[in-house]
Specification:
This protein is α/β, with parallel strands linked by helices. The chain folds into three domains: 55 residues, Beta Barrel (OB fold (Dihydrolipoamide Acetyltransferase, E2P)); 198 residues, Vaccinia Virus protein VP39 (Rossmann fold); 134 residues, OB fold (Dihydrolipoamide Acetyltransferase, E2P) (Beta Barrel), CATH 2.40.50. The strands form four sheets. A seven-stranded mixed β-sheet has the order 9-8-7-10-11-12-13. Strands 18-17-16-19-20-22-21 form a seven-stranded mixed β-sheet, sandwiched between helices. It has a six-stranded mixed β-sheet with strand order 1-5-6-4-3-2, with no helix packed on it. β5 and β6 form a beta hairpin. α1 packs parallel to α10. The longest helix has 18 residues.
Length: 472
Amino acid sequence: MRRSPGSEAPAAATVLKPPLEPGDVVEIDCTDLIAKTGQAVGRADGMVVYVLGPVPGERARVRVETVKAKYAVGELLELLSTSEDRVEPFCAVFGMCGGCQVQHLAYPAQLRWKREIVAGALRRIGGIAGADVPATIGMDEPRAYRNKMALVVDRSGPTAAFGFYAARTHDVVPIDSCPVVMPRLDGDLSGLWAAALDPSSAPAFADARHVIARAAQSSGQGVVSITTERASQALAAAAPALAGHLPDVVGISNSFEPPSENAVLGRRHVTLVGNAEIEEEIGGIRFRVSPASFFQVNGEMVGNIFAYLAPLVDPSARIVDLYCGAGTFALYFAKRGARVTGVEENPNAVREARANAELNGVAAQTAFITGRVDAALRSGRGAAALAGADVVFLDPPRKGTDRGTLEALTAAKPPQIWYLSCNPATLARDLAFLVAGGYRLGPVQPFDMFPQTGHIEALAVLYAPSHPGAAD
């Protein structure tokens, strides 16, 4: 068929073939690690390749398994060179269990890498060049530090089994010990396996989804909570027999009605044996905590953060503590003489904060508001506390704080903001907003709250334009 001028058939769209295909074998130089997964990062034929196993500075032969638009994922075939920062992992299920990502990286290298994670997020996400990011404050012994253990109960076999999820799946990796939890919790784990084989205590796990165990370093006490869909009569009946296998546990409870399919704790809790709480002491502050408490998992590192904050706390200061949880930092500030108003959405955490304030004799110096942080700062006691604050301390969840809260802070202009974050990406985003609102960013200090993992805590100090520190 003839076509009129200008009506030529359109050329077929050009389909660009990816430079790599599944099955290709390539060699890559590994330059970084992905914090969430521990995968090494390299390039082949101009394409980013992720692979588990290598550490930065190593060259690897990799078989490509999956190709996406902007990256490929491969399987390690051979290390062609090794880094002096490589160490032998100390856990038998490292690489299978999703709990730790970087046991194969020497601890000093972990600390350097985590500092760069924070500095890199500030540069790339916050647009903050040249930020003061000191060396990461780590642990003397970066093992056996976790005071809380959340186990998955696998009921697919003839007896209950206990473990952690494999990385990026809901497949359960059975474990009989864990080198990053406190030895006290390892003892509980042994007791759980024995209880699952004992006909008198095995029914305790008939309806179980998760077991949460918590231990205190200072008192040596422990508590266990078992999560079920509904209140479990089988667990209630078997709890005394289960307690016989957990001799150092002071209480066993049933957590039920979980808010989502992936939740490890339920909305409701019933104590079945003994006490629901244990007592911990950090930096001279006493805490009563339960398996469900909003409480940091690394007591030693909390003590290090306390020590870092100590010279910053003016005994006459008025401090607003946002996302205060069970009052961990509010109590520390109050114990040093400050008057503190805490804001927390979870009513159970607020009840614990008030009880812990009584326990430490600082109830008269503290006030706690139950509610969403952004709403609490807009009116009533929250707005009044913010207007009179010398310091605002905030420790939000991983998603960071919300725009309403940031706008309230930049409008009120408290002289100092201390922002503690467990997510460098959202920290950088929020710091960019505060800096654009007139604050000067002081040091951003990383703390290794979670050794052997890709997680990192960081504390940023900011000064309002009127504060003397803003001129430093």
